[in-house]
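Record format v2
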Amino acid sequence: MDKRTRAFQNSKKKGKLPLSIEQLKKSIKDQLHDEADLIFKKINVQNKNILVFYISYLIDKKRLDENLFTPLIYGDKDWTVEKLLAGLPLGESKEHQTVEDVCTKLISGSIGIYIESENKIVSYSILNNQQRPIEKPERESIVIGPQAAFSESIETNLNLVRSSVRSNDLVAEKFTIGSRLPTEVRLLYLKSLANDDDVQTMRQRLTDLKVDDIEDGSVLAQYVEDSSISVFPQFYLTERVDRFSYGISKGKVCVLADGSPEGIVAPTTFFGFFESTEDVYFRWNVATFFRMLRFIAMFISFILTPIYVAGVTFHYEVIPTNLLMTLGESRSKVPFPPVMEVLFLELIIELLREAGARLPTKVGQTIGIVGGIVLGQAAVEAGLTSNVLIIVIAMSALASFTAPSYLMGTAIRVIRYPLIIIAGLFGIIGVTFGLCLLIIHLLRMTSLGRPYFLPVYPFVYQDLDNALFRLPFGVSNKRSIAYRLKDDTRYKEKKSAKQKDIDDFGGYNEH
Amino acid sequence: MNINVAIKPGLRIRAFYLFFIIANIQTGTGIMGVSSYIYKEAKQDAWLSILIAGVFVHIIIFIMFIILNKYENTDIFGIQTDLFGKWISRILGTVFIIYLFASLLTVLINYIQVVQVFLFPLLSPWLLTILLLLIVSYSVLGGLRVAVGVSFIFFLLSIWLVLFLYKPITLMDLGHFKPLLEASPKELLLGAKATSYSFLGLEILFFIYPFIDNKKRAQLPTQLGIAMTTSLILLVTVTSIGFFGGERLEQTIWPVLILYKSIEYAVVERFDIIVVSQWMMVITPIMILLVWMITYGMKRLYSFSQKKTLYIVLFLLLIGGGTIKEQFTIQLIIDYVAKVGFWIAFIYPLVLFPLVLIKKKIEKKKEGYN
């Protein structure tokens, strides 16, 4: 047994109350490994020694002075534990029997008060929480609709969610995950709506999770996901408060972790990742158009470059003569096979993206210009790539950024590479092969035990709206049926009156 | 072996998928060459032969449902055990499985040959076999629900090919159908028999039936699936006869693919290449469903683990797909499968039908005595 553990165990033995002031001081110091900012303040009121102790950078000093020292000293009472608990103008109080207990509170921003020879220590939480203000979402920006993003503090996040889901139905179960560095995790759902099985599955996964610490909400999502092999995200991670509350109001099971600006929404379908909350704020027909656009974009993003490779490498006969001539002309200077050419350019685009994401914003813009204009033009002039390919690559890169979920966009970009390589090996047969495998993979996946490819397979035609397209609110009055929520009707369908003929309508309001 | 099978609710599938399963498993390899087969027998009245065959298959499906509905929740193996006892039913079941494997092999080698003719004359059949088997094994490992999902989605993803037949349809010469109704009844029936290879696959009903959730509504989608197949074969045959005319059609091995060759757009010059590659989505569900049937059958007959059967089947397919190359051999195997399939898929249910009825009547009488 080394020195430190022995010291720790000794301190444990010494930790039994009541103690003298000096003994307590030593015991706390031992426990907190001589923390330099640990402050002890001994005061004497009516011949009673009272010790106040705290870590100075964790607490709100103004409240300490106003709400603790002032009443404690000037109140001039005969202080006891009960009076401390009742008579101080501070909210969150706790009694503790042992020194260890108090120390765990101290490091999370509490002050301890001990009256000599009493057998309890009182603690008050006056945490000075350093947090950034609520900002606009950076990664998932939309044009219209609420513009609040989660921050790193779970209290703020819960506050935001509670204020947008105003219902006493909202349950926020608390879990503590991490054996070495515990993190507070909250499981949120609507009691009258969410499917009990889903809630139970998520609860089970959270309680079964035995790790030493979780770094972030996205890490937590990876721990509790269904399949860790797949490149596709199975839970929707969002920093948008409205997206999160939208999930809750649709009966989904949502998770927040302390210290993370990412909320987890589960279960999610593959098509859900192409759904933006903006679709709800837009008019239904416009929203449908944009959702379709995103699906097409996704398809273009992973199919266009492989098709180019297959076509130019093996199947010239498919390409129309005019286009073939242009292609041949621009490719005549390029010394590599099309696969190399495509991989080279894709790599440049990916490097630009990665560099742009890492660099400060101002330098990032320069990188964009350098990449877009200089490299593209220069690469063609140097005979490294063809003109046509630049357009193809730019289009597929652009398309991959339209996915509202950043994780899904990344997944699509990653699966493009194996497709390009297999297209270079087997031509168009390889592309179909890749697509087949991809679809089968998506069919096999689950999210929180629910099929990932809902509502297409298993086919639920009632759920097609809101997944593939949107209908007017008057028509789509149902929640997802496949998820078997407790209540799948959002509101009673308006009983349309008798079918009106052309001139039965009221006409304009003319005054 | 238990006659009736208990299937967990999580493994069951809804009845309407039967439409896609049936339409998918029947349409694929056969349809590529069926028109020239029928034409050889019934000449320009081939369309009538197809209608006769279609009606016949509808009746068979009807009979199959009567047989299956006599039992609580069973498949072909349960019925055979009930009728013939343990040992004979095992032999019959094994014959069934060997036949399924043979038809699986024809799907594979036929597609490999199509790819070699249209796309890559020098591509090694081993490589292509490995690609296809990867797809098959990955989805069969996911179980029946994934297999059904694949057939559902791939059907939706490849049905658009039919729309592009409009081009050859506009180029048809209706004179090729004259003189009308020239074929003798015998020729018509022979023509109907020639379609048998394209209608094969309906025996999946005997396997998949216990897995169906709402059995009362199973008949309609199945019959519609048959109607879908019939109309597709009809469409393809009529178009090929009208487009090619008699002599050219008889010399063509895959008339359908040649039909697509006539399509030309400003963006795509050779449409048939896209069709051949897209055809992978047409044949993989067939292979997946057949492999699933084999693995499930082995499990029912010999309690053999499905995974082990899968690997053995894949290994045999790899050897078959890699080594069988000559057009002549392939045609021979296909003809053979078509002949055996005719008896197993179409005649066998007709044999089972009276036997099941008699057996059930005897059982009822016995109960009455007791």
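Residues 310 and 428 of chain A are 5 Å apart (CA to CA).
Chain A touches chain B through 28 residues (CB under 8 Å).
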